[in-house]
Structures are given as structure tokens and as C-alpha cells.
Amino acid sequence: HALHRFGQEASRAVFGARRKIAAAFGVDYREIIFTGSATEANNLAIRGITKSIKYQVSSIKRPRIITTTIEHESVLETCRNLEKDGVEVVYIPVGKDGIVDPRKIKAALNERTILVCIMHANNEVGTIQPIFEISQIVRNFRNSKYISHPDPPVGGEGSRPVRQAQGGDSSAMPQNDTGIYPLLHTDAAQSFQYLDCRPEVLGVDLMTVSAHKIYGPKGIGALYVRKGVTLLPIITGSGQEFGLRSGTDNVPYIVGFAKAVEIANKMRKKEAIRVGKLRDYFWRQLKKAVPKLRVNGSLKSRLPNNINIYFPGENAHDFQIKLDLAGVAVSPGAACRSAVSKASYVVAEMGFPVERASGSLRFSLGRQTTKADIDWAIKSILKIVA
Ligand code: PLP
């Protein structure tokens, strides 16, 4: 941000990257906030919205957040943490198919609900949540609050007089909070590679993405914040990122992130089909050879690169090590979890017994995966099972 030539050169690079990412999402560049990870973006969304509530005129005393039991830990831990500060969190369970029923979300909405936080696609079982349907429910609830308000703000939602907070300045907060809430946030870290994640298509107010999920650098993420949404920073300082995330920009990572977005956007449709076909072939062959195998989560509403398989009678941890020795890299639960290998909480939260949660492995395909890799994986798995 320095005014000299070198500073301006870096600034231009960041600006260009921000515009590229914004264009890919079909949003304004000022709606993109760079963070150090998807974890931080999730924290900024959840904590930032919760913090901003305190500055509303008719402050909600016990704000409610609605989420699901199968979110990434960066959401679940943040919510658990906020519960200690008096926030009420409603954790909606998912069905055996790994998908949340939007009617349950509707039933959990109340006047105190500030945020609905539902991941787009699950990182372990790959199931895709009905985000657009949920967005309609949230929007209708929000609009019904407008109608019931005796003095609704002029111009409706699209022209609210509020922008994001600048540098934590609470004077930028709205003077009337009726109708603003609840907001909808989605964690699209897993889905952006293969699905259309434009906020307008999903109907979300906030959205998390991460570069390393799309072959960009590790250690850079972003939060989309719809214009008009009031958010307070969780990292304060010199006011970078429109006051929402202070700290010197990580220029090369930001530029790398934008390049990865550009490539992912170009390859999305073709790759989704190619990888999906390979994944289906993989599952068909395994199932044919070992009929007792079960897939965890819906096969229909699922990321094309993911298959999560229950191996009855096997321990996922041991199985993983044997596969690793054969040159096949898989994970029992979340790959980003520290080195601990625990039973999958996601499979358990889908309503399955502990044997299934600790006997399931997630297989992820990617840009480099070939048919030969899949055949090798099948051969290795069948050898171990035998
Ligand atoms: N959200 C989801 C759905 C994830 O799969 C992950 C995993 O890496 C994260 C958030 C955290 O991402 P990051 O490592 O960028 O913090």
C-alpha cells in the first residue's frame, strides 16, 4: 500500500487478482476479502456477524446461529466457542444421506436468528447441501420481518444505507436492524472446484473459499461479503481489506489464488465430467468385487471427485496405512485434521454406529488422477480386503 513505485506495483497485482476472483464469482471486487485460510474466512463470517450485533440499535440479547452437525471444524469449533459467550447455536442433524432437510432449518428460524451457516459440500462425504432452497427460506423469513415492521427502511434490502464496517468503526453500523437478519453463509471450500459457486446462483450473503482446494497456494483464502452486510473485523490494525482484515497483503499467494481460480473456472465443466466418470467406475468395480461395501452419503447429490466407502469389518486407520504402503493416499476423516486419525464424526452424525464411522475411508480424485491410478487403487484395495 506504499505510495512509491514498488508499493504501487504490488498493489496493482493485488487489485488485478481481486478483480479476477470477483469476476469469476460475478460480484464486485469490494466484496472479496482475502484471509489466511478458509478457517479464518469462516471465523470472520461467524464472529464478525455476531460481533456486529452488539452495535445494532435494538440489539438482540441472545443471538441464534443455525448450522449443521457435519460442518468443518473451523465452523463447529467457532460456534462452540461463541456458545460460551452467550450465543445460542442450533446444530441441525443431517439424514443418513448426509444432507440437511431445509424444513428443519425453517423450523429453527426465530426472531433472534442472525446467521444460518451451512456448508455447500461436505469435506468427508462430499454431499451437496440444498443451499439455494435454504436461501429462499432465509430470504422469505427476512422479508416477512420487513413487512411486519411498522417503519420499514426505505428502498428495501438492495439499497440499505450500510456498507461493511471500515476499520471497526461502529458509526458505520446501521441505525435499524429490523429485517437485516438472518444472513446466510456457506463454506464453499470444497465445492468451488466442481460446482457453480456464484453467490447470486446460491443466494448467499457470505461465502468462504480457499486456494489450496483448487490447486492454488496453501495459506490463502477469501470471504465473499455481500454489499450491505454489516461485519466487524476479528483482526484489527492498519485497516487492510476494507477494514475487515488488517495485515500486509500476501501478494504472491493472492496472485496465485487468482490464477488458480481462472484455471478452475476454465476446467470446471470438463473436469467434473471426467472425474465423475472415473469415480463411478471406481465404485462400480469395487462394489462388484465386494458386494458388502457401502457408500456413505447420497450418490446423487455429491461432489464428482468424492467417494466415501464403508468397509465392514475393517479399521480405517489400519486400512489407510496398508493402502499408503501400496502407494494409494487416502484419509479416514478430514484430510486437513492434524495427524490424529479418529473415527469420522461426519459418518457418525449421519446416524451410523461407531463401527461404520471407524471403518470408512474417503477417496478423493483430482486433476492428476488417471484411469490407470484408479485401476491401481482398485487392485490394491481388493488385495487388502482379500
Ligand atoms: N472448510 C472446508 C469445507 C474444508 O474442507 C476445509 C479444509 O481444509 C476448511 C474449511 C479449512 O480450510 P483451510 O485449511 O484453508 O483453513
Describe the overall structure.
The model is unreliable at 149-177 (pLDDT under 50). It contains 11 helices and 10 strands. It has helices at 5-25, 38-53, 73-83, 102-108, 131-148, 199-202, 251-289, 316-325, 345-349, 354-357, 371-385; strands at residues 32-35, 64-68, 88-92, 113-117, 183-187, 206-210, 221-225, 294-295, 306-310, 360-364. With 386 residues, it is an alpha/beta fold. The strands form 2 sheets. It has a 7-stranded mixed beta sheet with strand order 1-7-6-5-4-2-3, with helices on both faces. Helix 1 packs parallel to helix 7 (251-289), helix 2 (38-53) packs parallel to helix 3 (73-83) and helix 7 packs across helix 11 (371-385). The longest helix is centred in the C-terminal third of the chain and has 39 residues, at 251-289. Bound molecules: pyridoxal-5'-phosphate.
